[in-house]
Amino acid sequence: MINRVLIRVKVVQALYSYMLTRPDRTYEQAKNELQASFEKSYELYMYLLKLIIELTDLQDRALDDARNKYLPTEEDLNPNTRFVDNWLVKQLRENEIINEFFDDKLVSWQDEIIFKRLTLDKILNSDAYKEYMAYEKTDNATDCEVWKQLLKQVILNDEDVVEKLETMSLFWSVEDLDTMGQFVIKTIRRFQEGNDAPIMPMYKDEEDSEFGEKLFKTTVQIMDENNILIDSFIKSERWDKNRVALMDRIIMCVAVTELKSFPTIPTNVTLNEYIELAKEFSTPNSGQFVNGILNAVVKNLRERGIVTKP
Prior knowledge:
By secondary structure, the protein is mainly alpha-helical. It has helices at about 5-20, 25-65, 75, 85-95, 95-105, 115-125, 125-135, 140-155, 160-170, 175-190, 205-220, 225-230, 245-260, 265-280, 285-305.
């Protein structure tokens, strides 16, 4: 569930932070923070699922308050309860994995009343909600579909949601919200399709669970070796190796580690992933620069028989 794309991002970020803060921060501290960032990403996935429940419960209480006010209207007494009776939300609320996950959590959405009310208001005013409430008849599929649309149209694109998440955890960012949001949508689809285990595990398999730590550890171990190799392809007439952006250097070092030390990962996958990281996280020219250097490195490693994979 925490896929290799996100793992690579976390490893690059952890190495960048580690290189900036040495010697004040030890390798063990950096490694532990990396693991914590993986755990926090999965926690965000669970919190987004929990938010669906919390927003529904908030609307249920609002309908109940309206029924019990001093002079209720006919609509107050007989509201449309389709949203609060949603089948998907019932499945989430009764899910043992979700409930067990939050049993020992000190932080939750429970105290975020203002944030939840603002988010609920946006949902109630959204086209997806209005269309759903206007249907003549709904079923499990439409109950799932409305939440997929609400996530896409309201929650995952809301700056207030991003801001709130960033205040709740230093490890939660826009990238985490985008990735975990897509996994929440996939989870809803798994409920819709009747999957016996709709809640996704933290990692797809044991290999993925070990990938991040191994990539981080190996990169640190061969950082000097990788930098010497990278520097040999930086042409002085175009680039000053002493002025290469630290993020570019980190990205290239991690990429070279993956090329050398992970024989089952195709070369093109590695190149494409780290070139995209350079475009997203470094300077405007980084994508082209990293692309050129890494392709030269690959050619050299192939000629020396160090990289033999396709």
